[in-house]
Amino acid sequence: MTIPAGSLLALDNVYGGYGGVDILRGVTMTVQPGEIVVIIGPNGAGKSTSMKAAFGLVNVREGRVAFEGRDITNWRADRLVKLGMGFVPQEHNVFPSLTVQENLEMGAYLNPKGMRARMDKIFGIFPRLAERRRQAAGLMSGGERQMVAMGRALMAEPRMLLLDEPTAGLSPLFIEQTFERVVEINKLGIGILMVEQNAKQALAIAHRGYVLAMGENRFEDTGPNLLANREVAELFLGG
Amino acid sequence: MYLADFLQLLVYGVISGSILALGAIGVSLIFGILRFAHFAHGDLMTVGAFCALAAVTGLGLPVIAAIPFAILGAVVVAVGIDQTIYRRLRRTAPVILLISSFGMAMALRAVIQIIWGTQDRVYQSGIQLPYRIGDIVLQPAHVWILAGTALLVAAVHLFLQKTSLGKAMRAMSDNMDLARVTGINAERVIIWTWVMGAGLAAVAGVFLAMDTRLHPTMGWHMMLPIFAAAILGGIGKPYGAILGGLIIGVAQELSTLWLSPAYKPAVAFAIMVFMLIVRPQGLLGGRR
Ligand SMILES: Nc1ncnc2c1ncn2[C@@H]1O[C@H](COP(=O)(O)OP(=O)(O)O)[C@@H](O)[C@H]1O
Ligand SMILES: [Mg+2]
């Protein structure tokens, strides 16, 4: 596979893992500017590990990660934030003892200028957060915590956002709303790479998708084509 | 037992509790972020106390004016140890950091003994006229200790709540990985945590020496009640450490109504063990 020029984010034949055997065995994926790209696949496929590899949290033993054409393989996470990347991990993605507002402030830690205006913008996307700005994030519901986590990542004004299962554990209503927010964030010109278990709904809003299994690429196509693919449907979309 | 005796002991308890609190805040902050019990913290207090002594004897300063020298000395030592030794061990098991801090505690004590000897010293000899409030007696040093602690606790509170560095410290203590992903430069925040912890320890050391006297083992002997205070309040919670310090200080003093003062450390130890069994997350601990 070759990496198209002008990619926002590119993983090129990435091998790596947590010290022992490689979890990722030649993962390749790209996000073009303005795209929503969804990664689906069974549990333990290496979806979270791929995101961590892109964000300098898992050692990339072989292969390359690039952001806007610049090689960022194994860069430290805080440097990637400075460069314009944001990451919302799957779990433990808020600071529980900090208030909602303080969580958002931390997102702007590297670049506090104009923080108020940015925070107001985020309160515009997630009005619920404005109501609960003084509440400790750890005391909020799962759906609200997910909003805090996304808001925190957006405070750094990233051009690329990595979301690891943003709808995990949410009620159907919140799942719906979360996907709407993701589309809204994407419309601001932010490229999105998202891992999702609610694969059908996620592919419905995606420009493209990848199916990952056992640390390798299995399928790659546009959202609608993946949804229409019989084999993908049988194996990964629950029939 | 007379009410006056009780009140006098209560005041002494708050005074020694203040000193414990200043030490325990640092232990708690460092544990929150680096996940190990810093055994050399008491010896940082001693370093601070002796650096102040150097300024008192060398420059002829009154002891209060020598406090900045105490802070400077302890901060340089703490950041130096962190950058040369602890930093290399950050990715290992926390118990390795704990044991190396135990080693650093002994090393610091030995250096202090080599420089200043092992005899007791004081900042200022001669008797100072005490203040009397009703039946309660207060030494001038005690007034400094109480006022200084109140000031520092307020400053720590404002720092943690209002400044972005203070909030980043709380964020790191919540979740170090998320802090990195958020863009917080963890190493820089760690250094500032040492600056703050060591600075407070230095002041605690000077206060302890003002209340008693200087000796190379003075800080080491405070480690047990300081750990007890940090655990009582909820380890990793600076506000808990303040509360824990005051409770341990008061409990130790009041215990002398019934027990020999020689049992003070046993009182701290008993409270610590009791808390670890009954409520290991501490008084102000959440779920941890
Ligand atoms: N921190 C870790 N240390 C060691 N192994 C891990 C760690 N996290 C995940 N793994 C392993 O890596 C594999 C892929 O995990 P992950 O990327 O989380 O899968 P998923 O596709 O469900 O997100 C699994 O076999 C998992 O057990
Ligand atoms: Mg996962």
How is this structure best described in words?
The complex is a heterodimer of chains A (239) and B (288). Chain A has helices spanning 47-54, 77-83, 100-107, 115-125, 127-131, 142-154, 172-187, 199-205, 223-228, 230-236, and strands at 9-17, 24-31, 36-40, 59-67, 70-71, 85-88, 160-164, 191-195, 208-213, 216-222. Chain A is an alpha/beta fold. Chain A has a domain at 1-84 and 192-239: P-loop containing nucleotide triphosphate hydrolases (Rossmann fold). In chain A, the strands form 2 sheets. Chain A has a 6-stranded mixed β-sheet with strand order 6-7-8-3-9-10, sandwiched between helices. In chain A, strands 2-1-4-5 form a 4-stranded antiparallel β-sheet, covered by helices on one side. In chain A, strand 7 (160-164), helix 7 (172-187) and strand 8 form a beta-alpha-beta unit. The longest helix of chain A has 16 residues, at 172-187. The radius of gyration of chain A is 17 Å and the shape is globular. With 288 residues, chain B is mainly alpha-helical. Chain B has one domain (2-116, 134-278): ABC transporter involved in vitamin B12 uptake, BtuC. Chain B contains 11 helices and 2 strands, in the order ααααββααααααα. Chain B has a two-stranded antiparallel sheet with strand order 1-2. In chain B, a hairpin with a 2-residue loop joins strand 1 and strand 2. The radius of gyration of chain B is 19 Å and the shape is globular. The chains are: A alpha/beta (239), B mainly alpha (288). Chain A binds chain B through residues 55, 57, 76-78, 81-82, 87, 89, 92-98, 102, 105-107, 109-110, 112, 138, 152-153, 156, and chain B through 164, 167-168, 170-171, 173-175, 177-186, 286. The complex binds adenosine-5'-diphosphate and magnesium ion. Adenosine-5'-diphosphate (ADP) binds at residues 18, 23, 41, 43-49 of chain A.
**Biggest sheet: strand arrangement of chain A:** 6-7-8-3-9-10
Biggest chain-to-chain interface with counts: A-B, 27 and 19 residues
Helix- and strand-based class of chain A? alpha/beta
Low-confidence stretches of chain A: none
